[in-house]
Write a structure and sequence with these properties.
76% of the residues lie in helices and 2% in strands. It is mainly alpha-helical. Strands 1-2 form a two-stranded antiparallel ribbon. A hairpin with a 6-residue loop joins strand 1 and strand 2. Helix 1 packs antiparallel against helix 6 and helix 3 runs antiparallel to helix 4. It is globular and about 70 Å long.
Length: 164
């Protein structure tokens, strides 16, 4: 039993390490020349209208899915989803959104929230993860983010039409 728990803890640690790497890639992997700031793939993808923001959101949802796989409760996952939604909605605004992506770093925030939760929790067993669960969460999260992007673009088009 103890050996099984040790193996599970090692698997969890490996998953957390991969999620940390993904957050680094998305948020801080690229130094911005002549500044102390760093950006990531998420900010670069955000330069591509609609498709780039959606791709960034899907990659960010991978961190949330990893947290769910680790047995993180909804009271921790919902704020993580909120971070992804905020970054996706604001990130959809041309130029301002790209600058916001560089500063907000939702993925780093989410990984830190995950690590904080894992460090606080006792040695509770994690829930089993099924393929169906992955599919359902991915579909719901994708639909949620797509809806947010659509609303952001709709608001942007209305605002630009009013200012024209």
């Amino acid at each position: 039993m103890a050996d099984e728990q040790n193996q599970q803890q090692r698997r969890d640690a490996k998953l957390i390490a991969r999620l940390e790497q993904l957050a680094w890639l998305l948020d801080t992997s690229l130094p911005i020349p002549f500044t102390r700031f760093r950006a990531g793939l998420d900010a670069v993808l955000g330069l591509i209208p609609v498709v780039g923001d959606a791709a960034g959101a899907l990659l960010s949802l991978g961190i949330v899915a990893g947290a769910y796989r680790l047995g993180v409760p909804w009271r921790v996952l919902v704020p993580m989803l909120g971070n992804v939604a905020i970054e996706t909605i604001v990130g959809a605004i041309p130029l301002v959104g790209d600058l916001f992506d560089i500063g907000y770093k939702a993925n780093r925030r989410n990984v830190q929230r995950l690590i904080d939760h894992v460090e606080r929790r006792s040695n509770r067993p994690t829930r089993e993860w099924s393929t169906l669960g992955i599919i359902v969460v991915a579909i719901l999260a994708t639909a949620f983010v797509a809806g947010l992007v659509f609303v952001a673009l709709l608001i942007w088009s209305v605002v630009t039409a009013l200012l024209a």
